[in-house]
Amino acid sequence: MTEQVRTCCVVGGGPAGMMLGLLLARQGIRVTVLEKHADFLRDFRGDTIHPSTQELIAELGWLNEFHRLPHSRMDRVTAAVGGKPVVLADFRRLKVRSPFIAFLPQWDFLDFLVSKATAYPSFQLLRRAEVTDLIIEGTAVRGVRAQTPDGPITVRADLVVGADGRHSAVRKRSALPLAASSPPMDVLWFRLSRREADRVEFFQGGKGAMVAIDRGDYWQIAYTIPAGAYAELQELGIAELRRRISVLAPALSDRVDELSDWTAVHELSVRVDRLTTWYREGLLCIGDAAHAMSPAGGVGINLAIQDAVATANILGPRLRAGTLTTGDLRRVQSRRELPVRLTQAFQVAILRDLYPKTLDTGTPPHQPWIFRAFNALPPLRYAMGRFIGLGVRPESIDPATTPTEFTPAPEA
Ligand SMILES: Cc1cc2nc3c(=O)[nH]c(=O)nc-3n(C[C@H](O)[C@H](O)[C@H](O)COP(=O)(O)OP(=O)(O)OC[C@H]3O[C@@H](n4cnc5c(N)ncnc54)[C@H](O)[C@@H]3O)c2cc1C
Fold first, then answer.
1. Which of 85, 89, 140, 294 has its CA 20 to 30 A from that of 134?
2. Where in the chain is CATH 3.30.9?
């Protein structure tokens, strides 16, 4: 068993954990990020980098380099709901450097953050390190235990941050109280080929809902089903899934046969929940570990990153000075809880009428009032552009957290 002693130990190398690791290392804090996987090459992480996140990358001085990564841009969120087109959000009036969502595979974004973080000597990323337990002494969390291919390790730290996503092991071990969650749904995640002439809206809603993400030569499809209904759908046969996609997105009906069997389909569970208290002595949860987000609005990554920035702004100076208190952890939750509550309320409301309560698709598609309102009142789409693009209470990197003795990693 090897043991390390660090100032901060971050569990999970997703958007929240990687951004926090980077920002703390930039402040000269000895930080270790433990990530259970060997790489970021998983297909179901979400691909949206919002205007507010790009603004943060600009603050760090890396925006041009970020924009050189292969990506596509979306300056409006369009939808076909009940067979009728609607613009749900328009980012073009935002007063930011990047008034659009950049779509790039999340593994490219995370690799980008890692490449920047490793330029700081106090940063450490341990891959294939799965945290299995917390070290608790008295009432305080003092570190974590993890399994690696070379055997078990422990990392002791002044602060452990749970950024290990919606199935967080840290959350489970910490016994932090969880607020009642909204009824979950599941998502079926699969690819269909894409052609240049395709006209497919980002969001398709009717009886059920589907998102089509442009990934160049293929569409990444997310199709919603009621939680736990996958086995029932499988019994109906793959042809039934093909039929449903053809109804929601007729433009794709000529290639639904690419779904030859269920091996091409991944089932992902979705939930919206949150901890009522995000911290205890020596421990803080952020991102999905504190508040699991659904894919609605594609805002979970953005929110996770905003949590990381607030955490680095508030806790970084305390960690450097060795004066961290539980009251400081409370300040992080106080700062981030309102944005989280409002965003989760939005996620639940926007999907309420499209929420798949049963597998039945017999009723004709309809356009819920909330979508009709977007057509009737165009200014709503700019307001929604602000809400989705920047979020509530957007964070900015506190200039005071850039110590003069550390030179920022330069733009390549
Ligand atoms: C189907 C689906 C689609 C979505 N699409 C989008 C989208 O397009 N845009 C968007 O903004 N949001 C989307 N979301 C929400 C988004 O995925 C999350 O809100 C966001 O990923 C949260 O980031 P995070 O860093 O908190 O957690 P995660 O992204 O879940 O990262 C957690 C990390 O911790 C690691 N980990 C887990 N357990 C351990 C452990 N025990 N030890 C060590 N490491 C561990 C994981 O491997 C992972 O790398 C989607 C959600 C779902 C369910």
1. 294
2. 75-99+185-270+353-394
Q: Which atom of ligand 1 is nearest to the CA of 303?
A: 19
* CATH fold of 75-99+185-270+353-394: D-Amino Acid Oxidase; Chain A, domain 2 (3.30.9)
Q: Is 16 in the pocket of ligand 1 (CB under 6 A)?
A: yes
Q: Write the pLDDT tens digit of every residue in 336-351.
A: 999 999 999 888 776 6
| pTM as predicted | 0.91
Q: Is 299 in the pocket of ligand 1 (CB under 6 A)?
A: yes
* pLDDT digit string, tens, across residues 73-127: 999 988 887 777 888 899 999 999 999 999 988 899 999 999 999 999 999 999 9
Q: Is the dihedral of CA 153, 154, 159, 163 positive or negative?
A: positive
Give which of 332, 266, 284, 305 is closest to 59, Cα–Cα. 305
How would you classify the pairing of strands 2-11 and 151-162? parallel
Q: Which CATH architecture has domain 2-47+105-180+272-352?
A: 3-Layer(bba) Sandwich (3.50)
Gyration radius (Cα) of the chain, Å: 22
